[in-house]
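Quick one before lunch.
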Amino acid sequence: MTSQRTRERMIASLLDRGIKNWAVLDVMRTTPRHIFLDEALAHRAYEDTALPIGYNQTISQPYVVARMTEAVLAGRASDGSKLPRVLEVGTGCGYQTAILAQLADRVWTVERIQPLLDKARKNLGLLKIRNVRSKHDDGSLGWPEHGPFDAIVAAAAPQHVPAELLEQLADGGRLVIPVGREKGSQELRLIQRQGDEFHTQVLEAVNFVPLYIGQVQY
Ligand code: SAH
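Model of the S-adenosyl-L-homocysteine complex:
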């Protein structure tokens, strides 16, 4: 169920769907996704689908994790170089955090539901990932003390891109974020900063949980 063969099938499906950065594929092949799920769902860990993690939240679909990671890397990592500083908004159970942490020097991640953050910290500890700092807070505000960031990845969808996240992008930095409240009408955007200009590209239609603004839940 969590055998090498089912993992290879997941990688084959990422390749089929157009993921090309070999460093992303490699990290996703070697990172055990089943440890991020409750035991009852672990047998489905290598299906290319989002799955529940409690508190009405989901672990992101592997394809979407790969697509977002590839988009912010912009060709990096496949040449051995890493992203210096990455911010993640919406840690959830920490799966995407674990992928990013292996392709970046340092990752800062923010989650508004404390019990999920606790799970994520435990999971990252199990994988001996040590270059991540996390906090319980409203991630729509970013983490200004540690910015600017070379990449920002948001795992939940606001209606409008928060200005704080744009402000915390380094010059040349990339933000990948789903936008739109209605399920079925969200789009994944890639925003690149050049000086004080922001260039937006729409990558594809997606389905994310909402990004709550202005409140920390638990
Ligand atoms: N990155 C996760 C996906 C988690 S789902 C993965 O790899 O699977 C999105 C997460 O965003 C949820 O845990 C939700 O609680 C969190 N979230 C929503 N609004 C938030 C906010 N304003 N600040 C921080 N986290 C938020």
